[in-house]
Fold this protein.
Amino acid sequence: MHVFFTWVGILFCRKKIYRKCALSGLGVLCCHIFSVSSIFIPWVHLQSHLEVKNKKILIIGCGKLGQKVGLFAKDMPLDLIGLKRKKITSPNINILEQDIFEESFFDQVKKISPHFIIYCLSADRPSEMSYQKNYVEGLKQVIKSINCIKNFQHLFFISSTSVYGENSEQFIDEFSETDPENYRGIILLEAEKLMKSVNFNYTILRLSGIYGTGRNYMINLSQDLANWPEFDRWTNRINEEDAASFILFLIEQCLSNKVPEKLYLLTDNEPVRLYDLLNWIRQRLNLNKSNKPNSRQVFGKRLRSSLIPKLQFKYKYPTYKHGYIELIQGEKTSI
């Protein structure tokens, strides 16, 4: 509308000047100048309105999942910046070397001024101290830094289903009670609770057992019968590609002025007994089925999301079979 009135004003002035100076050379010159201006000035004004800068995503802890997000976001109107303890190269993300516990972290975040932050930092070692530092103290640093950012939109915190504890009797979803039984779940739940006091939009993503390219724990375990656990248990899987795609799906919602839920349980559609999964993999590797009997009592938990099926999001790998068959074929090719 502003551009329209600018154009009308210029045309009115041109007509008025032309009438006043119609018989003089000056009138002809003015007419030509205003003819060009009436086209050029509104066009420049319109262009400035149409230019929309890409939104910025800051990925803190740019490991396999963060880099997968970068790979899938390459065709989206997004600028991706990653922070990692040690600098690495990535084709789609500008990864900077930055320790989030250094004072320079706050200046770095303020300089980047992201619209979105994905916090997917992982513990650098499997210890209670490392979990506390990276998940709780690290998240406190991020929350503090966000308070210095203008136009910030959304924080995504990558958590884990270990916050639920063990419950093999019934399905667990986003609305189930949390009851962690080890330090990993306890500390992650402590980190999640930090979100309740923030004054910006956020989403917690509780991921089940993540697998994908380079994450071959189950494939390796299937071939190592001596290290199978003594008792059978439920296992829940989510492919790394589906996890990355879902994060970007939520960011697309934000770009469309939709606010995602504060919590999603990110797992595929088919919980499976661990022995069944391992034997299924062995069969595809042309190995004999293990004679380890399935015990009557099954430990662990069965997970399913009550919220994700209501969205317009589709898993590429809706069950472990869809995902692992592709990995197994890749394993066979590399042998």
Q: What stands out?
A: The two ends are 65 Å apart (CA to CA). Confidence is low (pLDDT under 50) at residues 1-24, 26-51.
